[in-house]
Amino acid sequence: MAISDLPPFDLDTTQPLQAQIHRQFVQWIKEGRLEPGTRLPSSRQLSLLLAVSRNTVVAVIDQLKAEGFVRTEVGRGSFIEPSLPQVQPIDPVVSSLEFSSLPLSGFAQQLEQLSVSVHQKTMPFTPGIPALEDFPMAVWQRLWRYNQSRIRLMGYDHYQGYMPLRSAIADYLRVSRGVRANADQILITDGAQQALALSALVLLDDGDKVLHENPGYRGAQSAFSIRHTQQVAVPLKHQAIDVDWLIKHEQHCEDAKLLYTTPTHQYPMGGLLSAADRIRLLEWATEKKLWLIEDDYDSEFHFLHSPVAAMQGMTQQNNVIYMGSFSKVLYPSLRLGYLVLPKQLVAPFTQAKSIVSGESTLLQQAVIADFIEEGHFARHLRRMRQSYKKKWLDFEDKINKKLAQQVDVIAESAGMHLVLDFNGRDDKSICRILNQEGFGGSALSAYYLDDAQKTGMVFGFANSNEQQREALVERLADLLGH
To answer: Which UniProt keywords apply (predicted)?
Structure first.
């Protein structure tokens, strides 16, 4: 092959040249642009062509020889290995057409019809983002450095999760939420979304009926779609799940397999299910013989009173699955959550997790375990509870002063977000404008399973400062004033 017959090289001088030249040769061989048996230019010619040292070229040829792409014959030179299969040069257009016709799974095709939530970048007022600037970074880094030096954490552990973390979670939930469980009933997950997906895989079959709060958490709606479920929209009363509706509408609930609820701080509307209604809901679920997933969302952040005890601890039945996450309490990219499972579900859930993702990151589990055991977790929650209360009061006050004629504030003295009711105004277009201008937030109508009964915005206030809250209210006044 003459040096002029080589395809043009495209080298980036800021990156390692040897790796780039090697990658280019391998690509040409695989694409059929260098055919088996082709004689390569000499190393001297290649070094002059590429303006690199001859040693670099020789190193590339040696690597290609070791990988079986090139054969060198004494006195004759280097050749593309003659025994390689003949490859037709790739036509990108034809190739893309051929592969675009390959069928996807039914689940993948279903995703095209779903409104799957895509995480926004971290902006002020994005729901679910805590006050990242208030995170105790110095303490966290100290614990991280200590655990990073532990040889044991470099290996494998149990798929169910790191035992010291499971024990710490069990102790914390027993004291703070009245949950009845020991460490053997806890499964560590890669965030709340994996917990929901595992629940769908283990508890549901295709076509099963699932009862879901409406409006409700979109992540749960998406997770249950894995099983092509029939999702029945259960309305709210006083911003929490309507237990009376469940009791009165047996035809809608007949043969339901699972109910998902956020009773301590309904997402997104913020209501708190009363103790009496919790007992009624537990009795109803037992009578109907269905699984009940209790997502204890935002239970740590009630400002004016202590939250009602978890439903899981209020029943002797073994059909309640309790769910929690560290992502909203500490920081989102942590991606660690947990399930408190009835004993008969521990083995199948753990086996499912071993197949889906394997064990969760061991180092992070160890750091969180120490963070809890040394008391930092409880102190952080106390500080954030006071901080979020001040932000909530300030945000609500600014809205009431500026937007009282245009919106209704739905605030339930808890959590990290606040809901505004636009009274029928188009929320998706306003949401789009705000997001483009750097304000987070989600359109309320997007949380409904069926036709939206309300429009508005869901604003997270935890990761905001006073100036940002002032600016958002001013911008909302402009948008809603037209």
So the answer is: Aminotransferase, DNA-binding, Pyridoxal phosphate, Transcription, Transcription regulation, Transferase
Residue listed under structure tokens 């508890």? 203
Task: Indicate the DSSP class of residue 211.
Answer: E
Which of 199, 238, 205 minimizes the C-alpha distance to 219? Answer: 199
Q: Extract the tokens encoding 253.
A: 């609930």
- Tokens for 26? 């391998």
User: Where residue 41 sits, what CATH number does that domain have?
Assistant: 1.10.10.10
Q: Where are the beta strands (DSSP E) in 283-407?
A: 291-295, 320-325, 337-340
Distance of CA 46 to the CA centre of its chain: 49
* Residue 468 near residue 124 (C-beta atoms within 8 A): yes
d(CA 362, CA 147): 10
- Structural domain boundaries enclosing 198: 133-378
Q: How many other C-beta atoms are found inside a 10 Å radius of the C-beta of residue 149?
A: 8
In sequence order, which residues have a C-beta less than 8 Å from that of residue 326 and are 6 or more positions away? 334, 336, 337, 368
Q: Which residue has 């040897």 as its token pair? A: 18
Residue 320: exposure state from Cβ atoms within 10 A (0-12, 13-18, ≥19): buried
pLDDT tens profile 63-87: 999 888 999 888 888 998 888 887 6
Note the pTM of the prediction, 2 decimals. Answer: 0.80
**pLDDT above 60 (res 3):** no
CATH number, residue 170? 3.40.640.10
| Closest listed residue to residue 340, CA positions, set 219, 227, 174, 213 | 174
Tokens of 106: 């039914």
Number of structural domains found in the chain: 3
